[in-house]
Amino acid sequence: MPESPARTIPTCHPAETVRHYLDQGWWEPETLPQALRRQVENAPDSPATTDPANLAELTGAVPRTLTWREFDQVIDDLATVLFARGIRQGDTVAVLLPNSVALSAVYFALWRLGAVATPMPASYRRHELSGIVTATDATAIITTGRLSDRELAREALAVADGRRTVFAFGPEIPDDAVALDHPVDEVREQLRKYESELEVTVNDRATICWTSGTEAAPKGVPRCHGDWLAMGRGVQDGLRLTPDAVVLNPFPMVNMAGFAGSFLPWLLAGGHLVQHHPLDLPVFFGQIARHRVTHTSMPPALLTMLLRNDALRASTDLTSLRRVGSGGAPLPPGVVRGWQEEFGIEVLNNFGSNEGVCLLGAPADIPDPTMRAQHLPRYGAPGVRWSTRLAESTAVKLVDTVTGDIVTEPGGRGELRLRGPAVFGGYLPGTATTEPFDDDGYLCSGDVFELCGEDGRYLRFVDRVKEIIIRGGMNIAPAEIEGLLIDVPAVADVAVVGYPDAVLGEKCCAFVVPAPGTTVELEDLVAHLRGLDVASFKLPERLEIVEALPRNPVGKILRRELRAALVTEV
């Protein structure tokens, strides 16, 4: 088999940055495949990973549980197929798969070859897939024959247009796709030689993930082995994962939520990773009980619903759970307190982004569950030592969005900016018009926080800079109001957006999903907020009842769709 021409090996950070991170011990020289090898050697016959219980319904594949040794063998088999078809170091491969053993194995097979994975939510279709394949110049697409009623492999073949190889899992694979379920044994010796000569550094690009695109077209976020593992170690510290942990992952393993919330902490700590997605509550709860899950993630709305629904909770065995990560929306303090005091389950307040923001409100740092629901650690706060290694290496500042001054006094608000070993090196060329760094190299997050605590040791999320509603010159943070309204018993889910007003510029509209069997009136919401002494200018002046809020594949509210609906109606 002839070798293809030499490829450029993409990296993520300048050489001097890499040396600094390694010298400081903020990065370790270990790569993602080496981290896997360590776990295989440490616990070869322990359970490593399990498929979603409903995988057969989703893709036709039989669910399986693999030990670390078996998982490593599956990765090796996949690598033979990819290698035989010419995938090599520096190649970028698009991945369109649901959470599964296969998805995890694909990542490691690509990394073993020195290739780059560009994952995307399985809900993406031809439009998104074609854009990502073009932007990354992907040499191949890896998918499955079908997903529920969709024929993913055929969609991928239409995008590939005969110029790229389409690899697929499952029993329903078109003839033009390459089956991944059949290893190519005749290339194993050649593959071993290739791997033995391969040089991979922690700065080599491992993934190109994509921003959520809630307000604009998604941007490519390249990340290397070093910054992924630094992120993973920080979350592992907060979750206190040990080799006996059983981690249930309900978020698509395509970006920060899935990678940093479950996949990487599991890889670093060992234990058992149980996959799940899309969210199916009976399946999800069944997996918790069957596998004695110790750690998982839940969106705030699900935490709230479980706490309030005695019948649903009574049908679910949660006795194995120790910690639950949550984020992406305001956490109601009463819910976090309820989970801890009534069930002994600690809820961690997570705040992150694909670009490398990672703030983790861990019980070891913020023991009071009510405070933890609303506050995050301010890394670098004078005289404070946090429990995660990432805190020691991450510099944080708040910058006033009007004056540009650094916020130093408690109660002050500003844009969160940070710099450190988990922050990415810059967007994929051609997918962003500007880079999000200030003159000092800090990542400009676009998120407004308030400095809290007597000594300014905490941060409280206010809202996205772009989502602030300006009513008559006064700023309103939708997330603040949403966090208060979610405590109304009749409110199952809520989003607050601004709509045009000829006099005041903008006013607030609350989109509400009512709890089953209830009704919601605007007067009820206003009365609740007035009872909390909320300023009058923040009160919603319009209510829209909806069956569900529009969200992107990772659960973020698509506010642009809500605003568009309001503008259309006006």
UniProtKB/TrEMBL annotation:
InterPro entries: AMP-bd_C, AMP-bd_C_sf, AMP-dep_synth/lig_dom, ANL_N_sf. The keyword Ligase applies. Residues 36-428 form the AMP-dependent synthetase/ligase domain. Gene3D superfamilies: 3.30.300.30, N-terminal domain of ligase-like. Residues 480-556 form the AMP-binding enzyme C-terminal domain. Keywords: Ligase. One of its GO terms (biological process) is fatty acid metabolic process. The keyword Metal-binding does not apply. It holds the Pfam family AMP-binding. Transmembrane segments: none annotated. GO terms for molecular function: medium-chain fatty acid-CoA ligase activity. Belongs to the ATP-dependent AMP-binding enzyme family. PANTHER family: ACYL-COA SYNTHETASE, MEDIUM-CHAIN ACYL-COA LIGASE ACSF2, MITOCHONDRIAL. This is Acyl--CoA ligase. The lineage of its organism: Bacteria, Bacillati, Actinomycetota, Actinomycetes, Mycobacteriales.
